[in-house]
Structure formats: C-alpha cells, structure tokens
UniProtKB/TrEMBL annotation:
SUPFAM superfamilies: Acyl-CoA N-acyltransferases (Nat). GO terms for biological process: response to antibiotic. Residues 8-172 form the N-acetyltransferase domain. This is Acetyltransferase.
Length: 176
C-alpha cells in the first residue's frame, strides 16, 4: 500500500487489476473526460498501455471502503514538460486520475483522493508543486481540484486530442 487516509487506500497497480481498468475505460461515462468515448480499452489495450509501456509513471489503484473504485498515476515532470508549462526548476509532480465506479462520483472521494495524494507527494517525494492539466470543459473535476487548493495558472490551447478534437486545458498547480 502506498498510503491510506481513513477509508481511502492507494496501492500499486497489480497485473490482476487489468480487468478493472478495462471495465472502467470501456464505460462511456468515464471516457467522456478520460481518454474519450471513441477510444475504449479492451484487455489487450490495457495490457499494452498500462503494463507493457516503459514510462516513468507510478500507476495505482484507488480503494474506498475496501472496494476498488479508481485509478491514479503520478510522475515527476521531465524537462520538456516543465518547459512547455513554463517551469524552469523545482521538484514538480503531475497526476492523472479517474474514479471508474460512477456510483462513487459526487461523494467527496475525489477531494479526499487529491488532498491525500498531494500530501503524499510533498511528504514522501519532496514535491515543490503538483500540477494537472484538465480539459477546460471538465468543470466538475476543476471544481474538485480548486477545493483541494489548486490554482489556475494558464490555458494550454489545443493541449489534448479528445474525441477527434484538440481540447484546451487548464494548467493548474498546487504550490507550497
């Protein structure tokens, strides 16, 4: 287990979790803001993207009340991404996440997850700031992140290809 905060646990992704990721990333409600409804995942795609890739992301499963409900990953920003975002130094981490079990939406769990992850990154990874780049149209997520202390920094125009259209995103940050 990476960390626990009350009923919330975050643990490292295991091979047996591939069926969960495939189920979540084939749900149109989840895909509306994460990956796109035109980009569903089957087991083969999950295995290739989440298990066979050689990236620097630390991939995790989110549990609440003993149930696996979502996914979160964190990573240290590389120099290219820092430059793109306008940062020149510092220990900066990024996160991406979703709650895959839609019955757990709008219950404050996302807020608990983000505040817990920020605390973990500051205390254990010595992060100076944590950043995310949600699509501007994802108002629910942005509201959650702002509740957790993130501030809007700037718009990243046409930052993410989503359902065939390049979407503008907010660069948001949590800074000590």
């Amino acid at each position: 287990m990476l960390f626990q905060n009350g009923n919330l646990k975050v643990r490292k992704l295991e091979k047996k979790d591939n069926y969960l990721i495939a189920r979540w990333l084939s749900n149109p409600s989840v895909l509306e803001f994460y990956e796109g409804r035109d980009n569903p995942f089957d087991l083969d795609k999950v295995n290739k993207v989440f298990y066979d890739s050689e990236d620097d992301e630390f991939k995790c499963i989110v549990e609440f009340d003993g149930n696996e409900i979502g996914y979160i990953q964190f990573y240290q920003l590389d120099d290219e991404t820092k430059k793109k975002y306008g940062y020149f130094d510092g220990n900066i981490y990024g996160t991406d996440q979703f709650i895959g079990e839609v019955e757990y939406w709008n219950r404050g769990i996302g807020t608990l997850l983000i505040t817990s992850m920020v605390k973990f990154l500051i205390e254990h990874k010595k992060a100076d700031r944590v950043v995310m780049d949600p699509q501007i149209r994802n108002a629910r997520a942005i509201k959650c992140y702002q509740k957790c202390g993130f501030k809007k920094v700037k718009i990243l125009p046409k930052n993410e290809l989503h359902e065939g259209v390049y979407q503008d995103c907010w660069l948001i940050e949590y800074q000590l």
